[in-house]
Amino acid sequence: MLSTSGVRVLRGRAGTGKSYVLAKAYKLATNRGQKVIGLAPTHKAASELKSKGYTDVYTVKGFLYNRKKIFMQNRLIVVDEAGM
């Protein structure tokens, strides 16, 4: 997950702990005062992120459409189920 570009990719098969790692990254970021944006391909998947505690959640389409209205500085952006 280390990168100098600012982009990290976490890939793995079902049950390998991706959601667990993302939950830890979310908690670490919010504890440091960083805002976290959750993105998902569908409204159902976005609802799953909300149920996991994410407060700032968008579908990918909604995020791209509204990105000029979303303050992006000092944000961690998590895209769940990116391969869908």
UniProtKB/TrEMBL annotation:
A Pfam match: AAA_30
Superkingdom of the source species: Bacteria
Gene3D superfamilies: P-loop containing nucleotide triphosphate hydrolases (3.40.50.300)
Native organism: Orientia tsutsugamushi str. Gilliam
Protein's name according to its UniProt entry: Conjugal transfer protein TraA
